[in-house]
Write a structure and sequence with these properties.
With 266 residues, this protein is an alpha/beta fold. It has nine helices and nine strands. The chain has one domain: Spore Coat Polysaccharide Biosynthesis Protein SpsA, Chain A (Alpha-Beta Complex). Helix 3 packs across helix 6. The longest helix has 13 residues.
Length: 266
């Protein structure tokens, strides 16, 4: 009599793709700035490599200068179309070439302090929830100035950790303000951390979907997913990561990292 052999659970193959555009509005050519002894894109690449679950890291860029920079420090890089309308489209273009990958992680090129554990959490959410197609992260907001800042994207989610909405406005919006609301445990307010993990097939589908009405109003691409009826899982991390958007952001980063000029070893 044949004995049924239980199937072993195989971890999904995951890959980090870093979309890297040369043009930037508030801080021109920021990914090539190197006052620490390393370019900003190299800092981000090396930070992403600290994650333990992905099989690899690849930069997706539309410009030869970034391509050459990544090659110079031993990183993996692929050229993408300069016509790509967003970073997600750039990531999807490279993902189409990776048929053997199950999960794609989108790490922004201007996130040099992204934690490897955060990347691993986003991947683990999809590994542990086989029917989920997308995940992201959030961190508590404890400062009212940050809560009111439209540049700080907020997220609310249900008891199963599924996003209900993302907004530049205060959500939830208290009818009567009390500073004690910022100290509640569990927290009431969460900042969205702009890191995404996708099932590869869903990412390719997302790139083919037209922008949604809420997405266009808030200028938040993740709302396209919610409007189309797909859930987004949200993991909570203790510490936020801050992207480099302005010269002040970069100056603060340089002050913390002026001694990090060791060569990269792939």
């Amino acid at each position: 009599m044949a004995v049924a052999v239980p199937k072993l659970r195989v971890r999904a193959t995951s890959q980090i793709i870093i979309p890297a555009r040369l043009a930037s509005t508030r801080l021109p050519h920021k990914l090539l700035l190197r006052e620490t002894g390393k370019s900003l894109i190299q800092h981000t690449y090396e930070a992403a490599r600290r994650a333990t679950r992905p099989a690899g890291v690849c930069v997706a860029t539309d410009h030869a200068e970034i391509f050459d920079e990544v090659r110079s420090f031993g990183g993996e890089v692929q050229l993408t179309s300069p016509e790509a309308p967003s970073g997600t489209d750039r990531v999807a273009e490279v993902a189409r070439r990776m048929a053997d990958v199950d999960i794609i992680v989108n790490v922004q090129g201007d996130e040099p302090e992204i934690a490897g554990s955060s990347i691993d959490m986003a991947i683990r959410l999809l590994e542990e929830n086989p029917t989920a197609v997308m995940s992201t992260l959030a961190t508590p907001i404890r400062c009212r100035r940050q809560l009111k800042d439209p540049a700080c994207v907020k997220v609310v989610f249900d008891q199963q950790g599924r996003a209900l909405y993302f907004s530049r406005s205060v959500i939830p919006c208290p009818r009567h303000w009390d500073n004690a609301l910022l100290d509640c445990n569990p927290p009431l307010f969460y900042q969205h951390v702009g890191l995404y993990a996708y099932r590869r097939d869903f990412l390719l589908h997302l790139a083919s979907m037209p922008p949604s009405s809420l997405e266009q109003i808030e200028k938040l691409e993740q709302l396209r997913v919610l409007e189309a009826g797909y859930p987004i899982l949200v993991g909570v991390v203790d510490e936020p990561t801050f992207g480099i958007d302005t010269s002040d952001d970069y100056r603060a980063f340089v002050e913390k990292n002026s001694g990090t000029s060791a060569s990269f070893e792939p």
